[in-house]
């Protein structure tokens, strides 16, 4: 390969050849990356690191956007062979397109168009029909631009729709979803799905609020279950709207009563702590404990109460305001979530004797709160400011990182009536980029 400084000495044809060769190398490099991500995902390595899935690992440790991380994982799943739990190997869904990508014959954009087309392919299409359509698209991709290939994709999808019965909407993953629209009368029409933990919380709220309520004249409640739940949801929304100082999330979310016998404690029975909706491991319970008030009740084998623990473990409203001023929001690197979307996390867990003090708390959004509890990332306070220690696989020296997402840009002028957290880390440029 010719050195970069000598490019200016080349002829026009030679420079064009270099551009062509390096562009093909970029395509091949993306295919090689998909191969590695495919193995990473097939072996579920992210779970061993404490992450929910491969996309979360890519987003947190490689700093890809959530959309890009999901796209990479989806591409990798279709481009690489898979192994079943019984050890059986299955060919890649888009093996032909992946081979063209590895050869540098098509680009990432071409592959994305082909992948998107087959994501909408009806299940009733035969393997032979799929292979024929893939061959057609790969052959066209070697000659067409991605925008031109999308026109072919549109024709193929139209043909499938004409020859196949309507397909139900495809499942779009395990993330929480809420879709809504207003009808002509101004009513809100919505649909979606929630993760088990959030669903259990909502179901617990519906319990007392959606019970049949007799009318003032003593007649029975004529509302059906769906109507009662709709009115209960309206009450929940009205209650949320009345919360004082929405800029600082405050108030107890719930009261969790964990009841175990002394024998259970001695025997370290894990299931005694896991009878909580949405909890599948002790780490889940510990993470939830950061957001709820815990009243431990320990009983002897005969049922006599032995100990009632502390209940003043949540940050007070005043403490949350101090944390909001100090942290400006979630302290995880790159996160721009403000204080209202965060919980006060105990750096030393409450269950391990940690105090509900400003010096032992930092703000974390829900997603990064889970990351801190389930992975090797850690938080510490240095000079009164929160900094995060990355896993050793990212940095063997575990050099601390401070979140600059809340302070990027020119420093704002100070005023006599309003104080704020330092606009930047001392000694760093106000235009410093997050790292």
Kindly describe this structure.
By secondary structure, this protein is of the alpha+beta class. The protein has a 3-stranded mixed sheet with strand order 6-8-9. Strands 1-2 form a two-stranded antiparallel ribbon. It folds into 3 domains: about 5-165, no CATH class; about 175-210 and about 225-240, no CATH class; about 250-435, no CATH class. It has 14 helices and 13 strands. About 40% of the residues lie in helices and about 10% in strands. Belongs to the Rv1128c/1148c/1588c/1702c/1945/3466 family.
User: Rg from C-alpha positions?
Assistant: 28 Å
Total of DSSP H or I helical runs spanning 4+ residues: 14
Summarize the amount of helix as a percent range.
40-55%
Give unreliable regions as ranges: 247-255, 304-311, 409-435
Strand content: 5-15%
H/E order of the elements?
A: HHHHEEHHHHEEHHEEHHEEEHEEHEE
Topology, number of strands: 13
Query: Largest beta sheet, briefly?
Result: 3 strands, mixed
Structure described in brief:
This protein has 435 residues and is an alpha+beta fold. The protein has helices at residues 12-42, 45-48, 54-61, 66-79, 95-102, 108-119, 127-141, 146-163, 196-209, 225-241, 262-267, 282-289, 317-327, 366-374; strands at residues 82-83, 89-90, 177-182, 188-193, 255-256, 259-261, 293-294, 297-299, 305-308, 342-346, 361-365, 378-382, 385-389. The strands form six sheets. Strands 6-8-9 form a three-stranded mixed β-sheet.
Please name the defining characteristics of this protein.
two-stranded antiparallel sheet; 13 strands; single chain; 435 residues; three-stranded mixed beta sheet
